[in-house]
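Q: Convert this sequence to structure tokens.
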Amino acid sequence: MTAPEKSKARAGRQTAVSLPARAWVSWGAAALTYVIAIFNRGSLGVAGPMATDRLGVGATALSSFAAVQLAVFAATQVPVGLLVDRHGPRTMLTTSLAVMAAGQTMVASSHSFALVLTGRALLGCGDAMVMISVLRLIASWFPAARTPVLAQVTVVVGTAGGLAAAPPLSAALRAFGWEPVFFSVALITACMTAGVWLTVRNTPDGHAPSAVRGPSPESLRTALSEAWRQPTTAVGLWLMFTVHFPVQVFVLLWGYPFLTHGQGVSAATASYLIAVPLVVTMVLGPVFGVISGRRPQWRLPLVLAITGATTVTWAVVLLWPGTHAPLALLFLLAVVLGLGNPAAVFGLDIARSGSPSHRIGAASGIANIGGYTAALLAMMLIGAALDHGQGAATTPDLMDFRVAMATQITLQVVGVSLLWRSRSRLRK
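A:
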């Protein structure tokens, strides 16, 4: 560790000692915001069949809900990163909750495909502001040695929102219906805005928040350009592109229809299988955080191993002879997919480690684009393949799903190639 890094670590430890309560309160409120964001993000995963009936749409249109949400998420990552660096996490987290509440209200109230699509776009916009804001908050309040673990713990805490968006949300939708459930979600999201504004602080007392500096538009462009020139930013982007999208595709949209329509699994069992990757994230997230902080050289080999395991497991499930794969194999698939969530945070750790403090938001935003762009492409490919193979049938069959889900392997091959290329440039 260099002298400046040692000085920075000592300063972080002193901050943690002098203001431990404020640091943890600010992080706790930010992490709770992430819980709500993950719940809103995954709220369509088990509601897909109900959305099809309510709006009268097919597989491609259904995939467009998640695709538009992820497209907006990916497109706003860089602007959000720059705005977080400029205005601070407190303002951005509060704004994110207000935007998500508005989007969920549109989803709850509308029978129109266009309005529900707009609502999902707003959800993607609000969701985009959260994780980068939390990472910036952690970097401001805690020593550098703790940031990888706290980033993973944030993901673990946020996973509770994903779990709530699986079996509990599925049961609530069956019991109460579309409008009561989604209006309730919108109300809870809106009520959180006041709590975040009152409890979150951008930096420890005595340190001017970055909002005070108020950089000009030119300096924002410079920050973006300089963040992209850092080789670690490209490595983080392609790492997330490669390892993060399979679990998102499974949890957010196509896992539930694949299990119920393609594998003949009951709705209740399917909702529990969708929750398995989230449990894996909660269990292994802190472990991956320790690895990232103490053994950074393990990150890339671990990501490549997880990518290979994902490809092999999907291949076994899709090529299983007969009609349906065994439930144990589907469970194994869900477990392997779950490894992609904590592994993806390696990309944010790498991007953040190579950037100065005033560009952490920009670098994190660029890296975060990777996973969500790949998820967007995968969801659209699967939806188009299902509609093409389905023909006149009302629902896709097992063979349709086999062909459609296999399209993910192409994206993984592309991701590994680009990740290896960016890693080679970093070494040079």
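Residues 23 and 144 are 14 Å apart (CA to CA).
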